[in-house]
Amino acid sequence: MASTVEAPVLTAGPEAPAPPPRRTGRRATALAGTALRRSVAVIAFFAVWELAPRAQLVDPVFLPPVSDVLPALWDLARSGQLWSNTEASLVRALAGFGLSIAVGVPLGLLIGWYRPVAELLNPLLELFRNTAAIALLPVFILVLGIGETSKIAIVLYACTWPILLNTISAVRTVDATLVKSARSLGLPAARIFQKVVLPAAVPSVFTGIRLAGGISVLVMIVAEMVGAKEGLGFLIGSAQQNFAIPDMYAGILTISALGLVFNYLLVLIERRFTRWRTDAR
């Protein structure tokens, strides 16, 4: 009689353990703590702004409490004035800022890498780098008129300098050991610039770009205060002349928020292009 062989019983392997709830809770607590630490100074600032006028430490007519400014900000947003003026300012700032990157980065790379170009242009750069953009605003208006061209041009001029100077410095301060090592491998100058100098210069270049981003907003506001019919600078100047003080501070808060968002976006772009850095956050 043939013996029967029982089939082995297959048992399921051990399931992967679910992530402990404590780890998730700790992560949420850490994120909340980080957010609180980063916002405590801002909260304290707005608290002082609210309490100082109410305690008569400053004249509430000229510095109203923030609780009076926020309704004015809401009214401007609801009427559409805030959005139309913000759009006009953004177009001018982004146009000048984008052109400054297109001009400053290539020119800075040329000046920093090629000595003959540096010897040719350095005297001219030294002449104009110490001339404040705001001081040249009347010249731009006289030459280019009071339209959009003069405002974009003054933003372009102001933003080009931090980008240009940081790019030149970034190229010139690349570790000489890296360049010598690349040359010892027989790489031509163009390949050394592409594979060694350019990646090493990227962090400093982005530092100049971030500085230019803040400058673009400030210079644009000043240009709009001098001669414009729309924009956040025009909104602030018009509110000040009409003694609509809450509206004036509402425009200032909008500019602060705009600059904050602008800088945050530039930080994200910088992280995207500098992932190779071991100290990147």
Quick summary:
The chain is mainly α. 77% of the residues lie in helices and 0% in strands. Helix 3 packs parallel to helix 6 and helix 7 (176-184) packs antiparallel against helix 8.
What does this structure look like?
With 281 residues, the chain is mainly alpha-helical. The protein has one domain (70-274): Orthogonal Bundle (MetI-like fold). The chain is built from ten helices and no strands. It has helices at 21-54, 66-79, 81-113, 115-129, 137-144, 148-172, 176-184, 189-226, 232-241, 245-273. α3 (81-113) crosses α4 and α8 (189-226) runs parallel beside α9 (232-241). The longest helix has 38 residues, at 189-226. It starts with 20 loop residues before the first helix and ends in an 8-residue tail after the last helix.
